[in-house]
Amino acid sequence: MPAQKTVQALSRQAEFYQRAAAFEGRPRERMVALGEADELFFRRFPHHYRALQVIRMAGQLGRTSAHRSLPLQGCESRTVALLTGVVTDALEQGDLSLAAPRRSDELAFSVWALVFGTRALMSTAVARVQLSVSDGHAVACDTADLLFDAMDWRPLSTEWNYADVRDRVRREVFADEWPGGSGVRASAGSFREAPVGEQVTGR
To answer: Rounded CA gap, 183 and 175, in Å?
Structure first.
Protein backbone atom coordinates (compact mmCIF):
# COMPACT_ATOMS: atom_id res chain seq x y z
CA MET A 1 0.00 0.00 0.00
CA PRO A 2 1.50 3.37 -0.97
CA ALA A 3 2.72 5.23 2.08
CA GLN A 4 1.22 8.46 0.74
CA LYS A 5 -2.32 7.11 0.96
CA THR A 6 -1.75 6.08 4.56
CA VAL A 7 -0.49 9.57 5.34
CA GLN A 8 -3.62 11.00 3.68
CA ALA A 9 -5.75 8.78 5.89
CA LEU A 10 -4.33 10.60 8.91
CA SER A 11 -6.43 13.65 8.04
CA ARG A 12 -9.55 11.49 8.15
CA GLN A 13 -8.50 10.10 11.52
CA ALA A 14 -7.92 13.63 12.84
CA GLU A 15 -11.38 14.67 11.65
CA PHE A 16 -13.02 11.76 13.47
CA TYR A 17 -11.16 12.58 16.68
CA GLN A 18 -11.99 16.28 16.54
CA ARG A 19 -15.67 15.57 16.04
CA ALA A 20 -15.64 13.12 18.93
CA ALA A 21 -13.90 15.55 21.26
CA ALA A 22 -16.65 18.11 20.52
CA PHE A 23 -19.38 15.64 21.57
CA GLU A 24 -21.86 17.30 23.93
CA GLY A 25 -21.46 15.59 27.27
CA ARG A 26 -19.40 15.40 30.41
CA PRO A 27 -15.65 14.88 30.02
CA ARG A 28 -15.77 11.13 30.63
CA GLU A 29 -18.48 10.84 27.99
CA ARG A 30 -16.25 12.73 25.56
CA MET A 31 -13.43 10.30 26.33
CA VAL A 32 -15.84 7.50 25.40
CA ALA A 33 -16.59 9.37 22.18
CA LEU A 34 -12.88 9.46 21.32
CA GLY A 35 -12.78 5.70 21.76
CA GLU A 36 -15.65 5.36 19.31
CA ALA A 37 -13.81 7.58 16.83
CA ASP A 38 -10.82 5.26 16.98
CA GLU A 39 -13.06 2.22 16.48
CA LEU A 40 -14.73 3.85 13.49
CA PHE A 41 -11.41 4.71 11.87
CA PHE A 42 -10.19 1.14 12.39
CA ARG A 43 -13.34 -0.33 10.82
CA ARG A 44 -13.47 2.09 7.89
CA PHE A 45 -9.72 2.03 7.16
CA PRO A 46 -8.34 -1.24 8.60
CA HIS A 47 -5.37 -1.48 6.24
CA HIS A 48 -4.33 2.11 6.88
CA TYR A 49 -4.77 1.64 10.63
CA ARG A 50 -2.47 -1.39 10.58
CA ALA A 51 0.00 0.42 8.34
CA LEU A 52 0.18 3.23 10.90
CA GLN A 53 0.91 0.66 13.60
CA VAL A 54 3.78 -0.70 11.51
CA ILE A 55 5.13 2.82 10.96
CA ARG A 56 5.03 3.48 14.71
CA MET A 57 6.87 0.26 15.47
CA ALA A 58 9.43 0.97 12.77
CA GLY A 59 9.98 4.40 14.26
CA GLN A 60 10.65 2.86 17.67
CA LEU A 61 13.22 0.59 16.06
CA GLY A 62 14.86 3.51 14.29
CA ARG A 63 13.83 2.33 10.83
CA THR A 64 11.74 5.35 9.81
CA SER A 65 13.36 8.59 8.69
CA ALA A 66 12.49 11.73 10.61
CA HIS A 67 11.07 13.36 7.47
CA ARG A 68 8.64 10.53 6.69
CA SER A 69 7.49 10.28 10.30
CA LEU A 70 6.58 13.98 10.64
CA PRO A 71 2.93 13.60 9.49
CA LEU A 72 2.43 10.74 11.95
CA GLN A 73 4.09 12.70 14.75
CA GLY A 74 1.76 15.59 14.08
CA CYS A 75 -1.28 13.30 14.17
CA GLU A 76 -0.13 11.69 17.39
CA SER A 77 0.52 15.10 18.94
CA ARG A 78 -3.02 16.23 18.09
CA THR A 79 -4.47 13.00 19.46
CA VAL A 80 -2.68 13.32 22.78
CA ALA A 81 -3.65 17.01 22.94
CA LEU A 82 -7.34 16.10 22.53
CA LEU A 83 -7.08 13.39 25.19
CA THR A 84 -5.25 15.73 27.56
CA GLY A 85 -7.84 18.43 26.96
CA VAL A 86 -10.65 16.09 28.00
CA VAL A 87 -8.79 15.07 31.16
CA THR A 88 -8.08 18.74 31.96
CA ASP A 89 -11.79 19.57 31.54
CA ALA A 90 -12.66 16.75 33.96
CA LEU A 91 -10.25 18.19 36.52
CA GLU A 92 -11.60 21.72 36.11
CA GLN A 93 -15.22 20.55 36.38
CA GLY A 94 -14.54 18.49 39.50
CA ASP A 95 -15.33 15.11 37.91
CA LEU A 96 -11.77 13.91 38.48
CA SER A 97 -8.94 14.58 40.92
CA LEU A 98 -5.29 13.79 40.34
CA ALA A 99 -3.01 13.88 43.34
CA ALA A 100 0.50 15.19 42.73
CA PRO A 101 2.74 14.21 41.04
CA ARG A 102 0.19 12.73 38.61
CA ARG A 103 -0.48 14.88 35.54
CA SER A 104 -3.29 15.05 33.01
CA ASP A 105 -0.98 14.31 30.10
CA GLU A 106 0.21 11.12 31.81
CA LEU A 107 -3.37 9.84 32.02
CA ALA A 108 -3.90 10.83 28.38
CA PHE A 109 -0.81 8.85 27.43
CA SER A 110 -2.06 5.82 29.40
CA VAL A 111 -5.37 5.85 27.53
CA TRP A 112 -3.59 6.17 24.18
CA ALA A 113 -1.25 3.31 25.09
CA LEU A 114 -4.17 1.13 26.17
CA VAL A 115 -5.94 1.51 22.83
CA PHE A 116 -2.80 1.15 20.72
CA GLY A 117 -1.56 -1.86 22.68
CA THR A 118 -4.90 -3.64 22.50
CA ARG A 119 -5.12 -3.18 18.74
CA ALA A 120 -1.51 -4.26 18.22
CA LEU A 121 -1.94 -7.48 20.20
CA MET A 122 -5.31 -8.48 18.76
CA SER A 123 -3.62 -10.07 15.76
CA THR A 124 -1.53 -12.42 17.89
CA ALA A 125 -2.36 -16.09 18.36
CA VAL A 126 -2.20 -15.68 22.13
CA ALA A 127 -5.01 -13.11 22.08
CA ARG A 128 -7.20 -14.93 19.58
CA VAL A 129 -6.59 -18.57 20.55
CA GLN A 130 -5.22 -18.81 24.06
CA LEU A 131 -7.21 -15.92 25.55
CA SER A 132 -10.19 -16.16 23.16
CA VAL A 133 -10.34 -12.38 22.77
CA SER A 134 -12.55 -11.63 19.78
CA ASP A 135 -13.41 -7.96 20.31
CA GLY A 136 -10.45 -5.77 21.15
CA HIS A 137 -12.59 -2.63 21.25
CA ALA A 138 -14.86 -4.12 23.92
CA VAL A 139 -11.85 -5.19 25.96
CA ALA A 140 -10.34 -1.70 25.73
CA CYS A 141 -13.65 -0.09 26.74
CA ASP A 142 -14.09 -2.41 29.73
CA THR A 143 -10.50 -1.85 30.84
CA ALA A 144 -10.84 1.91 30.51
CA ASP A 145 -14.01 1.79 32.62
CA LEU A 146 -12.12 -0.13 35.32
CA LEU A 147 -9.26 2.38 35.21
CA PHE A 148 -11.51 5.44 35.33
CA ASP A 149 -13.66 3.98 38.10
CA ALA A 150 -10.54 3.17 40.14
CA MET A 151 -9.49 6.81 39.73
CA ASP A 152 -12.99 7.91 40.83
CA TRP A 153 -13.63 9.71 37.53
CA ARG A 154 -17.28 10.71 37.73
CA PRO A 155 -19.77 9.60 36.77
CA LEU A 156 -18.72 6.05 37.59
CA SER A 157 -19.75 3.19 35.33
CA THR A 158 -22.02 1.99 38.15
CA GLU A 159 -23.84 5.33 38.01
CA TRP A 160 -23.94 5.95 34.27
CA ASN A 161 -24.84 3.84 31.26
CA TYR A 162 -21.82 4.26 29.02
CA ALA A 163 -23.18 1.75 26.53
CA ASP A 164 -25.94 4.29 25.89
CA VAL A 165 -23.31 7.00 25.51
CA ARG A 166 -21.58 4.94 22.82
CA ASP A 167 -24.90 4.54 21.06
CA ARG A 168 -25.44 8.31 21.18
CA VAL A 169 -21.99 8.97 19.75
CA ARG A 170 -22.65 6.63 16.84
CA ARG A 171 -26.05 8.19 16.16
CA GLU A 172 -25.27 11.85 16.78
CA VAL A 173 -21.63 12.24 15.78
CA PHE A 174 -21.01 9.48 13.23
CA ALA A 175 -24.46 8.79 11.81
CA ASP A 176 -23.19 9.30 8.26
CA GLU A 177 -20.31 6.84 8.70
CA TRP A 178 -21.76 4.17 10.97
CA PRO A 179 -23.82 1.53 9.10
CA GLY A 180 -27.45 2.54 9.26
CA GLY A 181 -26.60 5.45 11.56
CA SER A 182 -27.39 3.09 14.41
CA GLY A 183 -25.83 2.57 17.79
CA VAL A 184 -26.29 -1.18 17.47
CA ARG A 185 -22.88 -2.81 17.40
CA ALA A 186 -22.10 -3.70 13.82
CA SER A 187 -19.89 -6.49 12.66
CA ALA A 188 -16.70 -5.66 10.80
CA GLY A 189 -18.37 -7.05 7.68
CA SER A 190 -20.94 -4.26 7.85
CA PHE A 191 -18.24 -1.78 6.95
CA ARG A 192 -16.70 -1.24 3.57
CA GLU A 193 -13.19 0.15 3.54
CA ALA A 194 -13.52 3.73 2.35
CA PRO A 195 -11.14 5.07 -0.30
CA VAL A 196 -8.85 7.71 1.15
CA GLY A 197 -10.14 10.29 -1.32
CA GLU A 198 -13.77 9.70 -0.43
CA GLN A 199 -15.54 12.70 1.02
CA VAL A 200 -16.74 12.29 4.59
CA THR A 201 -19.62 14.44 5.66
CA GLY A 202 -19.87 15.70 9.21
CA ARG A 203 -22.75 16.61 11.40
So the answer is: 9
